[in-house]
User: Fold this.
Amino acid sequence: MSTLALLVVLLWVVVGLAVVVGLGYLVFRRPRLKGPVMVSLTAATVLVAFLT
Assistant:
């Protein structure tokens, strides 16, 4: 793998972690959003599973 490819993978990992932490904080601060966030994460997981 080239250095550029490794940097891109690292960037995606950092962005992914930031999104997960942000959603966790959002659900912690506003518990009524737990349902919609869980549905969105489930749909995104299914989509990624079908695409890979």
